[in-house]
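[Solved] Which block belongs to which protein?

Original post:
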Amino acid sequence: MKHLAFIATTAASALCAGAVLAADYTISVTLDTSPQHVRNVWLKDFAEAIEEKSEGKLELEIFEAAAKYKDSEAAAAVAQGAIDMAIPQYQLISRFVPEADFEQLPMFYGLDRDQIYAVVDGEVGDELHGKIEDKLRVKVLGRPIDLGFGTVFSTDVELKTPTDLTGLKVRVPGGPATVQRYENMDAVPVQISWPDVPQALQTGTISSLWSTQESVASAKLWDAGVKYAMEDRQAIVQYVPLINQRALDKLPEDLRAVLVDTWDEMVDAQRDFAAERQQKARELNAENGIVTSDPNAEALAAMRQKLMAVQPALVEELGIDPAFIDRIAAVTGE
């Protein structure tokens, strides 16, 4: 990947080419993360590839750092046609489709990347995307891209095992399964949108947060008091690409194919890129004083057993189809 500081706008093209060369079609995209974030960096590479393959006929106009919408609002905005495209986390769609909270369930605690991809890239993923499309009247552009495995961070309490979270106010991005997970871990989950996290840390609204090494590094949250971290692979965070159906239908067939095919061609490399960025972010966070621990196998197994005991009741409470869970279990071997 080139990872160029590419801005997919007509104005930027004019500065580079010395003339205003408008594309025939423009897709507007909302992100609530910062320009340095892994999702933003990769999407600019994707936008560049789209412009090249379409010979300048199609461009992406990217609105970053919640300039348009927070991710918690993004799916609804796409469904309503207020923005053409968004790439929110799965769990932020769960208020429309309960099954979208699947990766936050206890059964995903501790799974590796390949096991997760076997679910999301196969028939189970296709089924879920169909549910999302039917409910929101949008199109899922393709397979999800990665942010990475979640990490728990703290301002005051050194985190070494999952039981160290007891009593802490933990920021969560959303999704009822995530909220329930922290309640079952004896913590106090607080749902806060990402742009509001630094202030929440500084004011003491939260003393901990569930995010990723990449997100914390890109936001320089060491400046907001973050000192400790723990990687227990509670769940992976993935982004699902949603595009307004009407916006997609306006594109000629060849440009629709460019959009869909290019996305699929770039997903695997993006996932590797995201994993690399997480490791580099961990190193950068360490350089800025954030100490990360890796719990031992016994501590992880004990917490997984505790969480799995409540999964049946959680699935019922969330309104998730039990047969959908059975199909996931058949893939993961649970």
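(Second protein starts here: sequence line, then its structure tokens.)
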Amino acid sequence: MTDLPDALGPLLREARARLGTTVDDPALDARLIVEHFSGTTRTQAIADPERRLGAGIVAEIDAALKRRAGGEPVHRILGYREFYGLRLSLSPETLEPRPDTETLVEAILPFVKAVAAREGRCRILDLGTGTGAIALALLSVVPTANATGVDLSAGALATAASNAGKLGLAGRFTALQSDWFEKVSGRYHLIAANPPYISSEDIGNLQDEVRNFDPRLALDGGADGLNPYRTIAAEAARFLETEGRIAVEIGHTQRNEVCEIFAAAGYVSGGAFRDLGGNDRVIVFERIKP
């Protein structure tokens, strides 16, 4: 049994009250949960606040509110998150894509469009693909691009492949289980990655919603958080077209260190980009021409 009212308006108010002291934006989270499980809209809540919801729906909302109050991120409860206008399903094995990662898509999109226009195609390798967010966002905009999404986690790859199918992009997206470049073959115009970049000792200092629900495999970048960049910089050349680019997301304090790693491997920065908060977030690299 639940003490939630079954009328839409009062239920929304009670949901907000329940979350009021436990989450940053109780009004938004309450609305997302109620609308998702009831199949209603904000307009319906305003126009028909006495709309009755079935007992089963109210019970689902009650359970979801308890999960949210217990610290589980709202999008984990909903099972999806919007990214670059796409609805991407989540799973326990995938990082929850954040708006900051859209910075990478925006940074490299002009290059992808230019290659596709010039050559009639653009081949993308998305390392640590997770939900497939970066690759699928690019494919959704550039119809002649195709992508291989690489991940070590079979569960993440299943989620990415499912997302590609739901978005009608399965024909241009290939999921590949590989430890970075281990199983990769061929050459790509773009190698993109949002790799793990948190230092191992800092994992414990992350927000509970990140530390307890995002997979550690997608967070832990080794002792200094830079191991994935070393791997990418050292191995990417064998898989990169002559005029290709590498685009990586970084932690906001890592710009200099990441640039040094890639410079030592023969790359030069083709641009650094800041996220919505004004923090360094993405660097694009190209090979130094002989």
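Accepted answer:
You had them paired correctly. Confirming on the second one: The chain has a mean pLDDT of 95.
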